Each structure stands twice: as structure tokens, then as C-alpha cells.
């Protein structure tokens, strides 16, 4: 049975092959005309699809290595490692959907409503779980460094419950995708898209509610927690002479900054779109087109985040490289001399404190 869609003038920001802009404008003659839909060129569509496939490959390889390293070092696993393990799992799950999004970008949605809901939920869960896990890492580092509560941060039994709570809360924030995501033919087009189908006269109001609540509790609040915790923690580290903790904090801060670099532009653009829907920002075709293009572009940047963390660990995290080499030595893939040379060359310290086997 073919999916149908009744257009009510509120569907502006489709993230598919085309940039749909529908708000009516008044020309000099006084005649009301709809904004025209602008198609992306085939070169751009296939280039974006290629980027998605490349990110998928890098993410699967990189995050699989992170899971391997953290899982292999059970005895030395810290609270931060448990959070990073969950972060890698979230990125792995999302990476599996990237080929589907690549086909959508290059062509149209051909996978049905069920897959539309499923992949949309994984996208949201990946984002919310990522920012929440980073927020809890910031709290863990804050307690360990500012208050030196090593005994508290090393109690791992409660970390499992925290991680389960993060996954459940992320899923709850993503439930609107299950309810409202549908596959339908875009207005004035034969192409099928995967997007929200709320319907009714209260469409704009519900869209605003469904955006503001998740953005507030799933992004702004965790971001405020991170800024506070890391601000105080970094200030405290400047007063200390513990180089090992400083190195671990450097990696964590880079992880947070990269997350913000990838996802903050998308959330800012989404917020601007929300302001336009509520009438706070005057809407016209030019502004609508800019925001739609911004949503599509910044979403690509957000998707690329799923492969970033393993690259950071590999280039900055000495412990990650050391523990990965230890696994290769134990499996007989490389000799012990290679590990010894690496430790000498990198001035690696075996004193782990209560930082992380990954960082």
C-alpha cells in the first residue's frame, strides 16, 4: 500500500536529495507564489553518499578496535573506560545505518517505513547517548581530580546502572521518531522521503515541542554540566603537577571539542529553524533555503562524528596505542621488541592512577 502525505505547508526541512522550500511569498504584482524546490546536483548527491560509506568503514574499524582494547583490559578498566566503551558501541550501531542513509542521499528512500523509523531512532539514540556519556565522563573526572574521590570513582558496580539509564533515557528522547517518522512522496515530486508526518492543524506547535524538549534535556543540560565540570577540573589541573592526569584530560577534552564541532552546528541550525517556525524569525524563501541547506550540510558533519573518537585515541592517546600493541604481542602478531621501542619512544608511563586504560 502506497504511503500518502497531505501537505499543509509545514514541511520545509526535508533532509533528502532535494531542498524543499514551500512558504508562500508575495511578488511585486501581489500574486502569492510558493517557493521553488531546488534539486541538488548528481555530483553532490553521490559525493555525500561516498562520504557516508567512507565514514561507515572508518567507524566500524575504529570503534571495533576501541571495544577490543577496553574489553581486553578488564582488570585495569576504569569508570571512564566503561563510558567510552558504551560510546564506541553507540557509534558502531549508528555506523551500520550509514549505507542506508547513503542510498537515500544518492537516490530516494527505498527501504520502507519500518527501516525509516529504525534508522532515525538509531541516529537520535547515538547523538543523545553520546552527549550524556560525555557529560558523565566530565562528572567522573571532576570528582576524581577536584575532590580526589578515587575510591568513589573506582566503584564500578554503579556505572552499569548509569549506562543502562543513559541508554533508556536516550531511547525515550528518540521516541518521537518511532511515532511520527513515515515514508511518503515529497510534495510536487515522485521521490520518496523519510521524514516526520505529524499532520493536523497543530503540526508546527508539535514540531516545536518535539524539538525543544529533547534539545533541552538531551543537549543543553549535558552541555552545561560538561562546561562546568571541565572548567573547574582544568583550573585545578593547572595547580597540580600530575602529568599523567593532564595527558588523560587532554584526550578527553579533545573528544568533547570534536563532539561539539560535529554536532553543535546542526543543533544551532535546528534551533534557528525552530525560531522561524514559531515566528520569532521572519520567514521568507531566501532564509528558508539557507536554513534548509544548513540542516542538510550540518547533518553530514554530525554523521561524520561516529568515526572521530578512535582517530583521536590513536593519535593522542598513548595508553590506547600501548594496550593495542600489548594485544598484538599476546596474539603473536608483533614482537615484544616493538612494544618496548614504542614505550621508550613515547616516554610511556605504566602508572595508570585512576584515569583510563584507553586514554
From TrEMBL:
Task: From the record, give the transmembrane residue ranges.
Answer: 46-71, 83-104, 127-149, 161-180, 217-238, 250-268
The family database entries (InterPro entries) matched by this protein are listed as: CCR1-9-like, Chemokine_CXCR_1/2, GPCR_Rhodpsn, GPCR_Rhodpsn_7TM
One cellular-component annotation, GO: external side of plasma membrane
Q: Where is the G-protein coupled receptors family 1 profile domain?
A: 62-313
GO molecular function annotation: C-C chemokine binding; C-C chemokine receptor activity; C-X-C chemokine receptor activity
Topology relative to the lipid bilayer, per the entry, is: Multi-pass membrane protein
SUPFAM superfamilies according to UniProt: Family A G protein-coupled receptor-like
**Where is the protein localized?**
Cell membrane
Sorted alphabetically, the keyword list is: Cell membrane, Chemotaxis, Disulfide bond, G-protein coupled receptor, Glycoprotein, Membrane, Phosphoprotein, Receptor, Transducer, Transmembrane, Transmembrane helix
Choose any GO biological process term that the UniProt entry carries and state it.
calcium-mediated signaling
Q: Establish whether keyword Transmembrane is in the entry.
A: yes
Q: Which Gene3D superfamilies match?
A: Rhodopsin 7-helix transmembrane proteins
Report the superkingdom from the record: Eukaryota
Role played: Receptor for interleukin-8 which is a powerful neutrophil chemotactic factor. Binding of IL-8 to the receptor causes activation of neutrophils. This response is mediated via a G-protein that activates a phosphatidylinositol-calcium second messenger system. Binds to IL-8 with high affinity. Also binds with high affinity to CXCL3, GRO/MGSA and NAP-2.
> Subunit comment for this entry?
Interacts with IL8. Interacts with GNAI2.
**Similarity comment: family membership:** Belongs to the G-protein coupled receptor 1 family.
- Name of the featured protein: C-X-C chemokine receptor type 2
- Species for this entry: Anolis carolinensis
The upper taxonomy is: Eukaryota, Metazoa, Chordata, Craniata, Vertebrata
- Gene giving rise to this polypeptide: LOC100554402
Amino acid at each position: 500500500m502506497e504511503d500518502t502525505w497531505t501537505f499543509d505547508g509545514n514541511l520545509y526541512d526535508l533532509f533528502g536529495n532535494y531542498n524543499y522550500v514551500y512558504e508562500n511569498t508575495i511578488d511585486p504584482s501581489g500574486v502569492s507564489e510558493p517557493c521553488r524546490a531546488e534539486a541538488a546536483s548528481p555530483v553532490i548527491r553521490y559525493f555525500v553518499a561516498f562520504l557516508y560509506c567512507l565514514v561507515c568503514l572508518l567507524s566500524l574499524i575504529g570503534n571495533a578496535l576501541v571495544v577490543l582494547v577496553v574489553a581486553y583490559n578488564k582488570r585495569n578498566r576504569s569508570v571512564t573506560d566503561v563510558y567510552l566503551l558504551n560510546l564506541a558501541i553507540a557509534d558502531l550501531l549508528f555506523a551500520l545505518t550509514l549505507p542506508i542513509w547513503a542510498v537515500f542521499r544518492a537516490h530516494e528512500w527505498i527501504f520502507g517505513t519500518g527501516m525509516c523509523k529504525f534508522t532515525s531512532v538509531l541516529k537520535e539514540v547515538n547523538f543523545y547517548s553520546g552527549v550524556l556519556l560525555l557529560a558523565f565522563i566530565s562528572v567522573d573526572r571532576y570528582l576524581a581530580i577536584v575532590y580526589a574521590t578515587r575510591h568513589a570513582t573506582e566503584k564500578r558496580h554503579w556505572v552499569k546502572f548509569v549506562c543502562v539509564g543513559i541508554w533508556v533515557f536516550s531511547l525515550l528522547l528518540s521516541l518521537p521518531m518511532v511515532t511520527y517518522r513515515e515514508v511518503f512522496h515529497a510534495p510536487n515530486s515522485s521521490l520518496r522521503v523519510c521524514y516526520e508526518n505529524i499532520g493536523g492543524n497543530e503540526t508546527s506547535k508539535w514540531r516545536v515541542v518535539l524539538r525543544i524538549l529533547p534539545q533541552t534535556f538531551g543537549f543543553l543540560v549535558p552541555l552545561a554540566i560538561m562546561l562546568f565540570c571541565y572548567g573547574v577540573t582544568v583550573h585545578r589541573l593547572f595547580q597540580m603537577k600530575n602529568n599523567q592526569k593532564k595527558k588523560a584530560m587532554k584526550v578527553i577534552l579533545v573528544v568533547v571539542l570534536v563532539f561539539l564541532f560535529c554536532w553543535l552546528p546542526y543543533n544551532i541550525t535546528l534551533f534557528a529553524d525552530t525560531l522561524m517556525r514559531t515566528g520569532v524569525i521572519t520567514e521568507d524563501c531566501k532564509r528558508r533555503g539557507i536554513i534548509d541547506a544548513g540542516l542538510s550540510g550540518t547533518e553530514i558533519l554530525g554523521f561524520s562524528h561516529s568515526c572521530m573518537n578512535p582517530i583521536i585515541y590513536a593519535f593522542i592517546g598513548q595508553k590506547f596505542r600501548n594496550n593495542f600493541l600489548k594485544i598484538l604481542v599476546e596474539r603473536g602478531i608483533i614482537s615484544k621488541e616493538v612494544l618496548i621501542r614504542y614505550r621508550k619512544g613515547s616516554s610511556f608511563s605504566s602508572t595508570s592512577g585512576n584515569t583510563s586504560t584507553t586514554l
